[in-house]
Recover the amino acids of this structure.
């Protein structure tokens, strides 16, 4: 497996511009001879499809929802970062770069992160030009706020609906190209496999989710922007449809999977309420700008609260532990996500948790309301407060919110080089589906930034470069008649037939729940060698059971959500094992990956740069074989490796 | 809680549908309406029956995918709430709940509660955007936008494209949706240049897709989960009248 990251030569600030200059260009008249397949219509896919079509390429774009506007990016609440320094508070491209590398616990590739910071300012311009109604000051200038892990206000937002507005912007651009006939949009189509010809990605196999028809689609290259795999945990903040299928199928066809164990646990979600629950709901991190996080100081007080004998508001000041402010005075409530999540877990492990389950802490707006008035708080977070009340039945203006960490985002993904090309030539990966920019932990408001950076500003160049390198004579040369398409299509059909024929006793959802339970318990906020080894064995057994006992009712030739689920769960089963293997291999603690064996005396994560400053990339070798680990060393030339401190 | 569900079952667009009754027990008050349907579906699968197909994804009230009429009201009885954010504590133990798909000719039923809302996409494709090149915009603060304008645009832009407005309207009019989308773009300085063209194109596509005319009944506003206001319709009507007048004297293109 060739892991040449193709990082351009030269000083970090000039890498991207000099690389762009050296790239092959495709003459505008020739662009219409090429056909690009984009899977996914979220921020990364939607923006890439629109931009590529606008440049003149023919694009086919796929999504499993009924409209591209419903991709999971729509759910992002809090905001998007950009190094604009509009607030004059000392922000710069370099500082955003630095914060991101440090926030990721020094496990991201410097060159990619720098480029992300560099194009971040353009993203805001682009979005505003396309009509995204970002929040404004009275004078008409853009407003900003700060997010976890940053001491500057660089986050742009549109109420609590930033992702929605950014996605609608990309969707509008995409819609324009669909209207012009440059993009052919396939809604309710699920990609089930990748087709390679002479080693290059040249197409995909897709199921029409309405008719069940399996079809072949050929192109000159393939862009995957299929989002993250957080749903491997069953309960997460992700949308129901989020899955790993496209990425995992590509992995089985030769794409290296990087850092699968890096999952982000978000500190401020609504706690679990019972076993009928199907998802967890995030309360935007922006709330930590004004809300103060606390747990009772003593387990006795917590016990009284859980029993309903004491109300949160009646807990006296000296019985409250504002643990983030206490432990991390310079960042306080805005400490990064991994740190805040672990601190909440710690409080609950000590018996100081609240909520009926004991798995919860408070996010309290009492002081902010006293200071700024309820109206100001309503202005800032009104819809989030309503959402909280709608779900829990409690009024957060009167009683503190209850929060607990939940699986939220996946930093791991398909390995890509600087051009966002995977180890399969001609297959590009953007957005949450790739591994590239966040290292072991993602700072708030930077996933949206990365999705749009990839989609609007990176892929349109690097995809063109690849096509240019292939030469115009190669354009459109591979058709779906090629035997490789027939082969992969047969595999896809056989798999569906197999799922339909097992006729066992247990639903796909039930298997998913059991899988999620194993992974959360043993590869969640804390991980140990024994736990992970157990998890791997349990997943293997569960997978066997799945293929013997899953029950998929209905038919394959029409709308069948059970079949869709079964296929996705089957991939999660294999992928879940890979995730645990990766966690087992990484004998250190970093970012979202916390190995109990590797911690400092005061319980902080202990990184091991000597042995683990690399990207762990897994190669698939066969169903019954252990995957092979490859390492891309991470070299820090600009940011000095240092212990991450937020004290 | 224990419930009786009367659910619309329809195999596909070609076959006729009918209501089926299902008893359901042990539903937690903290469950969402869709979680309640998950339990029903697990029960049906256990009995070897096909589960009820329904559209859903984010389950956070933002993607606009969930779509079902609950006891005669699109998205159910709770104001300003999508079906996925509706919680069972708003129902009574022992209650009978009727669940059916959006009813509107331009949204044909595909299966059970799933309908085809692609006409909404085509309304946007015809003009619901700002024409601009990606990657070459001027600095965002070069054009100050008064807070009130930005707030108004955001009020309009909050529409999640769910289609409840169409389902609630006796005429199956898509005015509230189209008006929200057009008002968002038309009210911003960036969107002014193509305001007339946009408005004419979106309204004419809306008509071509078979949506009925708006007769100001207001059912749409009452069911809209994002509280899009009828003012948006007034705004669209104003923009449309202006565009038509201009079009009369000089073709808007
Ligand atoms: C609740 C929540 C709040 C968040 N808030 C923030 C925030 O405030 N700031 C921030 O920066 N980030 C936030 N994030 C993270 C951020 O939203 C995501 O990381 C980002 O939007 C992912 O974008 P994407 O384009 O990579 O993927 P997605 O938006 O997930 O898009 C994936 C696309 O791929 C398609 N797809 C997937 N599989 C297939 C397949 N097999 N076949 C066909 N199509 C397929 C889907 O249909 C979809 O169109 C939040 C995430 C969540 C869950
Ligand atoms: S206007 Fe309201 S009801 Fe209609 S589509 Fe938009 S959000 Fe849904
Ligand atoms: S499922 Fe997304 S709005 Fe209901």
């Amino acid at each position: 497996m060739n892991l040449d990251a193709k990082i351009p030569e030269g000083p970090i600030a000039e890498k991207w511009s000099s690389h762009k200059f050296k790239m092959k260009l495709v003459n505008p008249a020739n662009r219409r001879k090429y056909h690009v397949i984009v899977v996914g219509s979220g921020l990364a896919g939607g923006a890439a499809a629109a931009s590529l079509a606008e440049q003149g390429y023919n694009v086919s774009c796929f999504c499993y929802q009924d409209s591209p506007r419903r991709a999971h990016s729509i759910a992002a609440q809090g905001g998007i970062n950009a190094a604009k320094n509009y607030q004059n508070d000392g922000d710069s491209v370099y500082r955003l770069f630095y914060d991101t590398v440090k926030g990721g616990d020094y496990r991201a590739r410097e060159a990619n992160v720098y480029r992300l910071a560099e194009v971040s300012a353009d993203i805001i311009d682009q979005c505003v030009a396309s009509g995204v109604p970002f929040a404004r000051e009275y004078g008409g200038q853009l407003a900003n706020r700060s997010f976890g892990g940053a001491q500057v206000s660089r986050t742009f937002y549109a109420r609590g609906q930033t992702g929605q507005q950014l996605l609608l912007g990309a969707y509008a651009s995409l819609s324009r190209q669909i209207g012009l006939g440059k993009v052919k949009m396939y809604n309710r189509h699920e990609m089930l496999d990748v087709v390679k010809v002479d080693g290059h990605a040249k197409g995909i196999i897709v199921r029409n989710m309405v008719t069940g028809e399996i079809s072949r689609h050929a192109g000159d290259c393939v862009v995957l922007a299929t989002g993250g795999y957080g749903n491997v945990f069953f309960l997460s903040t992700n949308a129901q449809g989020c899955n790993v299928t496209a990425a995992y199928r590509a992995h089985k066809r030769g794409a290296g999977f990087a850092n699968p164990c890096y999952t982000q646990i978000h500190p401020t979600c609504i706690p679990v309420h019972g076993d009928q629950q199907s998802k967890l709901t995030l309360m935007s991190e922006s709330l930590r700008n004004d809300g103060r996080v606390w747990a009772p100081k003593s387990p006795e007080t917590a016990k009284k609260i859980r029993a309903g004998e004491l109300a949160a508001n009646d807990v006296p000041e000296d019985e409250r532990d504002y643990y983030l402010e206490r432990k991390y005075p310079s960042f306080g409530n805005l400490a990064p996500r991994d740190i805040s999540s672990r601190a909440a877990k710690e409080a609950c492990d000590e018996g100081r948790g609240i909520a009926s389950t004991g798995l919860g802490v408070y996010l309290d707006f009492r002081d902010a309301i006293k200071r700024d008035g309820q109206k100001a708080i309503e202005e800032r977070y009104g819809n989030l407060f309503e959402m909280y009340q709608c779900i829990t039945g409690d009024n957060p203006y009167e009683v503190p919110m209850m929060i607990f960490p939940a699986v939220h985002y996946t930093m791991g993904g398909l390995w890509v080089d600087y051009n966002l090309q995977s180890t399969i030539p001609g297959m590009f990966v953007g957005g949450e589906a790739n591994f590239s920019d966040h290292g072991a932990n993602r700072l708030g408001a930077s996933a949206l930034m990365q999705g749009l950076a990839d989609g609007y500003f990176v892929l349109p160049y690097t995809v063109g470069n690849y096509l240019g390198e292939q030469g115009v004579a190669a354009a459109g040369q591979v058709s779906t008649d090629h035997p490789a398409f027939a082969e992969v299509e047969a595999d896809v059909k056989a798999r569906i037939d197999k799922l339909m024929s097992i006729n066992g006793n247990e639903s796909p959802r039930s298997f998913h729940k059991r899988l999620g339970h194993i992974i959360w318990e043993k590869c969640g906020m804390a991980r140990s060698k024994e736990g992970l080894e157990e998890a791997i064995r349990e997943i293997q057994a569960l997978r066997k059971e799945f293929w013997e006992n899953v029950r998929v009712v209905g038919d394959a030739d029409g709308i069948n959500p059970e079949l869709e689920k079964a296929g996705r769960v089957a991939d999660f089963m294999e992928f879940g094992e890979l995730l645990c293997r990766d966690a087992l291999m990484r004998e250190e603690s970093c970012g979202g990956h916390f190995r109990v064996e590797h911690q400092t005396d005061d319980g902080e994560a202990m990184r091991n740069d000597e042995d683990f400053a690399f990207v762990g990339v897994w190669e698939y070798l066969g169903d019954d074989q252990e995957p092979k680990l490859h390492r891309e060393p991470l070299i820090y030339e600009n940011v000095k490796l240092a212990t991450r401190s937020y004290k | 809680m224990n419930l009786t569900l009367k659910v619309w079952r329809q195999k596909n667009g070609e076959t006729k549908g009918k209501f089926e009754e299902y008893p359901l027990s042990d539903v937690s008050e903290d469950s969402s309406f869709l979680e309640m349907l998950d339990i029903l579906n697990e029960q049906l699968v256990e009995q070897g029956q096909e589960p009820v197909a329904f559209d859903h994804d984010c389950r956070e009230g933002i993607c606009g995918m969930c779509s079902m009429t609950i006891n005669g009201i699109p998205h159910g009885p709770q104001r300003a709430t999508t079906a996925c954010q509706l919680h069972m504590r708003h129902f009574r133990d022992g209650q009978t709940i009727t669940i059916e798909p959006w009813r509107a000719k331009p949204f044909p039923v595909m299966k059970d509660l799933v309908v085809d809302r692609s006409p909404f996409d085509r309304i946007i494709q015809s003009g619901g955007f700002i024409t601009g090149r990606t990657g070459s915009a001027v600095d965002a603060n070069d054009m100050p936008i008064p807070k009130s304008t930005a707030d108004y645009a955001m009020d309009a832009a909050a529409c999640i494209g769910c289609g409840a407005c169409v389902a609630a309207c006796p005429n199956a009019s898509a005015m509230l949706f189209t008006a929200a989308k057009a008002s968002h773009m038309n009210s911003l300085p960036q969107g002014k240049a193509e305001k007339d063209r946009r408005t004419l194109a979106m309204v004419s596509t809306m008509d071509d897709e078979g949506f009925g005319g708006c007769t100001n009944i207001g059912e749409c506003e009452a069911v809209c989960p994002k509280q899009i206001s009828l003012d948006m319709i007034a705004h669209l009507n104003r923009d449309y009248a202006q565009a038509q007048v201009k079009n009369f004297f000089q073709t808007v293109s």
Q: What stands out?
A: The beta strands of chain B are 3-9, 18-24, 69-70, 73-74, 96-100, 109-111, 114-115. The helical segments of chain B are 33-46, 118-125, 147-157, 164-168, 175-187, 195-208, 219-223, 231-249.
